[in-house]
Design a protein that fits this description.
With 295 residues, the chain is of the alpha/beta class. The chain is 28% helix and 27% strand. It has a domain of 31 residues. The protein has a seven-stranded mixed beta sheet with strand order 6-7-8-3-9-10-11. It starts with 5 loop residues before the first strand and ends with a strand. The structure holds adenosine-5'-triphosphate (ATP) and magnesium ion (MG).
């Protein structure tokens, strides 16, 4: 397999209910290198959560290929899938309520998923994680006594309890304020730099933290473009508080994604500007370039 820790190749997910089928992923191609910190953006219903759920082993893909950490998500048995979810991937949602037990303390919540680890090691790891998310001082507070942002930080610690190689976060800052959101992005950055965890974040935030190296945009269940942070820009803002607005063109290189069948999605704005009436476009090759013209 490829050296990427995540490899999705022409990935398809179809949801079937009694009378309708929804094609949520329509041949998605994406590879993520080990140790990357990247984000996925896209409008509502574009397939972001569907893709993350496939990666997290929460739901099975319908067609295509999906390998994570060398494991084939198509051929995994139920038993292997349970082990995969326990040890290969950690998951954080926007609404963390579902992984936290309100009557238990932060510490007890973090200890919970580590039932297979010995007592001493378990306590040490829980303390280390509390430290990492900046909540060591609230160790014995019950979850219900904590703010939404603090609960979210505990949810991140829980997701890391079993030392997953990959952390998946689905709109982790969707219901917190800007300050908390920045804090959470800083935690992700430190996790990535200090523990080497590969991180994929689904977000609506366009002004992402400067340490996201790559942003992939999903449109209609396919990766339509990828923007990669320019080295020189990354270097310039390193160790500053400046955040990157991914709308600023000079900070990044933007690429459209070409699939194996030679298809690309063109940016909607460009097509509108061209003012096509119909679905035919003239394709001309000239000087090593491919030019698209209105017929
Ligand atoms: N369990 C399901 N059953 C049927 N259709 C589904 C299911 N989950 C998602 N879908 C459909 O699949 C498509 C992609 O949904 P998905 O939740 O992945 O979007 P999203 O990009 O995460 O959107 P949002 O930003 O609103 O969270 C949508 O059309 C959605 O209605
Ligand atoms: Mg979603």
């Amino acid at each position: 397999m490829s050296e990427g820790i995540i490899l999705a190749d022409n990935l398809v997910k179809i949801y079937k209910s009694t009378d309708i089928e929804v094609v949520a992923l329509q041949g998605l191609d994406l590879s993520v290198e080990q140790g990357e910190l990247m984000a996925i953006i896209g409008s509502s219903g574009s397939g972001k959560s569907t893709f993350l759920n496939m990666l997290g082993g929460l739901d099975r893909p319908s067609a295509g290929k999906l390998f994570v950490d060398g494991k084939n998500l198509f051929s995994m048995t139920e038993k292997e899938l349970v082990e995969y979810k326990r040890s290969t991937v950690g998951f954080v949602w926007q609404n963390n309520g579902r992984n936290l037990l309100p009557y238990l303390s932060a510490y007890e919540n973090i200890m919970m998923p580590m039932e297979l680890i010995g007592g001493k090691e378990r306590r040490a790891r829980a303390d280390m994680l509390l430290e990492l998310v900046g909540l060591a001082h609230k160790k014995h507070h019950r979850m219900q006594e904590m703010s939404g942002g603090e609960q979210q930080r505990i949810a991140i610690a829980i997701a890391l309890a079993n030392q997953p190689k990959i952390l998946l976060a689905d709109e982790p800052t969707g219901s917190v304020d800007t300050k908390t959101s920045n804090y959470i992005f800083d935690i992700f950055r430190r996790l990535n730099e200090e523990l080497g965890v590969t991180i994929v974040i689904v977000t609506h935030d366009v002004s992402l933290s400067k340490k996201v190296q790559r942003v992939a945009a999903i449109r209609d269940g396919k990766i339509s473009s990828e923007r990669i942070l320019r080295e020189d820009f990354a270097e310039r803002v390193k160790n500053t508080d400046k955040t990157i607005d991914w709308h600023e063109a000079q900070t990044q290189d933007e690429f459209a994604i070409l699939d194996k069948a030679g298809r690309i999605q063109l940016p909607q704005e460009m097509l509108q500007e061209m003012g096509l009436d119909g679905n035919k476009i003239r394709v001309v090759a000239a000087d090593g370039k491919i030019i698209l013209e209105k017929p």
